[in-house]
Task: inverse folding
């Protein structure tokens, strides 16, 4: 993942070099409503990576190994609630929805849901 600062004219300036997830096949990204953390689904590794976002927009992995949480097979889409308390993944390979509680330090804690999705589901939204 890389971070950028958007200027008043919309032009982007790169903040720093890319910070790899250390996993396989990063997909979608969400940013916390407060802008402090970003999360990406890792389809090939059935996981989520978490990044801390500094005031200067510099990003660093929350966990050194890049694995913030385990998902079902083939996570694709990811969504976060408006209050930033919960994170959800659409796990296409296992036809499930993963749920996580976001901690104050950016770590995530799994929440059992048992939620399943129909074959072919390809989008996820959270409120």
Result:
């Amino acid at each position: 993942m890389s971070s950028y600062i958007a200027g008043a004219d919309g032009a982007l300036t790169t903040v720093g070099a890319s910070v790899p997830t250390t996993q396989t096949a990063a997909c979608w990204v969400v940013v916390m409503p407060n802008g402090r953390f970003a999360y990406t689904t890792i389809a090939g590794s059935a996981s989520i990576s978490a990044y801390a976002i500094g005031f200067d927009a510099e990003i660093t992995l929350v966990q050194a190994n890049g694995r913030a949480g385990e998902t079902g097979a083939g996570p694709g889409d990811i969504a976060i609630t408006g209050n930033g308390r919960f994170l959800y993944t659409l796990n296409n390979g296992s036809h499930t929805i993963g749920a996580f509680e976001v901690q104050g330090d950016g770590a995530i804690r799994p929440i059992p849901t048992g939620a399943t999705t129909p074959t072919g589901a390809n989008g996820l939204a959270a409120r």
Notes: The chain is about 0% helix and 40% strand.
